[in-house]
């Protein structure tokens, strides 16, 4: 192994410095070009967790840490902040959010603490700080939760269910109109309403959809593997029979 330092902390910082200086690809990257990789690595961490693959999780956490180092190094190059600043800021924020641990206080009001942090950061409006780059389902849920904390919410699930029915009807009307713009708009409203109902039922929509994706994958694989002689030769009704068989098997 190339000697970069005596401790893991020293090695990862020296590694990033060396790559940024001498690697033709790494040296040309920017915040904008690296950001998509940061998102990708976050999802790969989630995938390893769901598979409970600890070896893979260790590797993916390393990849995610590399993304933090990369952004920190680029920020250091323009005298904005460095990796030590990131670590110090994290420690300070976690201490302020856990006064019951570090100051002997009572269990804190998390919402009040976060609201104070947003105000300090100059984010005065309720929805400020909900990242636009979040996956759409996740961002919809966060927007709704923020609004709900200000009282903009139905008291139960009756309202969201009725709203969902209303949006389905509006999708149907948009389809009949033939306007692709209207169809896209109404589909968006429908999805937003589904997220709202999920939130009221305490269901994490992103996780629920991931589960549905996994279920669809298992069942479709069953259909494909049991098609005789192959999938292309089957009618939709024949595929449906295999699909129902997959459901009966608990796939």
Q: What attributes does this structure have?
A:
mainly alpha, 11 helices, 251 residues, extended, single chain, Helix Hairpins, 0% strand
Describe this structure as you would to a colleague.
With 251 residues, the chain is mainly alpha-helical. It is built from 11 helices and no strands. Among the domains are: 101 residues, Helix Hairpins, CATH 1.10.287; 39 residues. The chain is extended.
Q: What topology emerges from the helices and strands here?
A:
Elements: H1 8-22, H2 31-51, H3 54-77, H4 83-97, H5 99-102, H6 110-120, H7 136-149, H8 158-177, H9 180-200, H10 205-225, H11 236-248
Helix pairs in contact: 1-3, 2-3, 7-9, 8-9, 10-11
SSE class: mainly alpha
* Uncertain regions spanning at least 5 consecutive residues: none
Tell me the fraction of residues in β-strands, as a range.
under 5%
SSE order, one letter for each helix or strand = HHHHHHHHHHH
CATH topology of the domain at 8-108: Helix Hairpins
Shape: extended
- Please report the first level of CATH classification, the CATH class of the domain at 8-108: Mainly Alpha
Helix content: over 70%
- CATH homologous superfamily name of the domain at 8-108? MazG-like
Strand runs, count: 0
Measured on Cα atoms, how large is the radius of gyration? Answer: 24 Å
Provide a brief overview of the structure.
This protein has helices at 8-22, 31-51, 54-77, 83-97, 99-102, 110-120, 136-149, 158-177, 180-200, 205-225, 236-248. By secondary structure, the protein is mainly α.
């Amino acid at each position: 192994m190339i000697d970069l330092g005596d401790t893991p902390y020293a090695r990862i910082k020296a590694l990033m410095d060396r790559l940024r200086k001498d690697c033709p690809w790494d040296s040309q990257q920017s915040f904008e070009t690296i950001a998509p990789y940061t998102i990708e690595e976050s999802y790969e961490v989630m995938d390893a967790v769901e598979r409970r693959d600890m070896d893979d999780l260790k590797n993916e956490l390393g990849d995610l840490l590399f993304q933090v180092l990369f952004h920190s190094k680029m920020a250091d190059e323009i005298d904005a902040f460095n990796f030590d600043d990131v670590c110090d800021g994290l420690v300070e924020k976690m201490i302020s959010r856990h006064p019951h641990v570090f100051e002997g206080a009572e269990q804190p009001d998390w919402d009040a603490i976060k609201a104070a942090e947003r105000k300090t950061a100059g984010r005065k409006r309720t929805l400020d700080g909900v990242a636009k780059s979040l996956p759409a389902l996740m961002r919809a849920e966060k927007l709704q939760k923020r609004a709900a904390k200000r009282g903009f919410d139905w008291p139960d699930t009756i309202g969201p269910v009725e709203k969902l029915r209303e949006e389905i009807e509006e999708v149907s009307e948009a389809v009949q109109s033939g306007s692709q713009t209207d169809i896209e708009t109404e589909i968006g409203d429908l999805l937003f309403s589904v997220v709202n109902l999920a939130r009221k039922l305490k269901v994490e929509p992103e996780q629920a959809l991931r589960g549905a994706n996994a279920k669809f994958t298992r069942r479709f694989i069953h259909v494909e593997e049991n098609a005789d002689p192959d999938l292309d030769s089957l009618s939709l009704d024949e595929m449906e029979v295999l699909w129902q068989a997959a459901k009966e098997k608990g796939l």
